[in-house]
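Researcher: Please translate sequence to structure tokens.
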Amino acid sequence: MGDSLSRYFYLDLAAFLAHGKWPMHFVSQWPEGRSFLSEKEYNSWSWFYQDSNRQLNRGSHAMEVCDCFRNDSVGFFEFIQDMFENRHFRYMPNGNLEDTVNDVRLSYIQWWGTMPMRGHRDISVKLPRNKTAVTFLKNWSKALCPQAPESFWPLSRNCSDQRPDIHEIDFPAFAEKEICANFPAPTLQPETQINRCQLFEKDILGAMGATHLMLNTGWHAGLEHVGGHRFLDKIVDAAAKHFAPTPSPSKLQLPSVIWRQSTQGSVFESHDKIALNYTQTQGYEQLAFFAVGEITSMLRQIDTAWRKNDSRTLQQLIKTHPTSWPAGKHVNLSTVHPICRTCTTKSTISSSTPFVR
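Model: Translation complete:
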């Protein structure tokens, strides 16, 4: 859960599982002349959602649903009023939709700090892990966009005017300050407040069968805006109550909740100190702090060169890392082995990972 960088970590790992190789970034060979590791390579969000979703649906062994919407026809402060992006990827190494033992499931849920969570709840929590998933998605596509082709997915501006108002698109509260910032609120009965502000973890993440949650607000809000330590308390408490157990314990097993450090230079980079302090005071077993600031430093350089239209510097950065998106690859390799029981990688990983204990 988190900002756009969290999305690209998700897409990077999902693409590796779907295609068997790490995706290219800022190059013309992946796989059809552009990389979905940057929305800037598309001229609309609708196209980006549709093409990235299409490339992660690979026959019988990989499928993704993108419950995504952003209105391309309006400005930033208008589209944030109703945008959402909730992606669910499933990898089945044997191509068997009924295999719930060896499959790997990844999800990305857009989280911009205090912005209300949105999405079609049933798509996230009731997506079948069997052969009925195809029919399930076709029925939802038809319900949400009746005039589109049966196979139409995901939502886009082409369907926004047709989207029925009867479908609920707001998730329970997750970080809205008026509800969960003072967990548990001293003015309310503790159990009442706990139930009220942990509905997202219980009714969405828990119902999805989540085992681990990696989150970061990145460019959009600092932890102090959503309650600081109290907010982390409520997530850690909810994970212990509602998350599914990790299938295969190991010495490298990570705790259920992981805070990902912000990209170097991001607006709220300094607020990661709250999460780091939580790990140091409450213990690694409660919250893992994923120190990836140095890994993502090149992304800051790329972004700066891009904004300045400095093609010479940009080309040099790309030339230095021509085969993959280095931040995504290193971050994902650092988490795949501790978390994933069945997915294997063709790359090696150092025994030291960037987790603060």
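Researcher: Any highlights?
Model: The CA atoms of residues 305 and 314 lie 6 Å apart.
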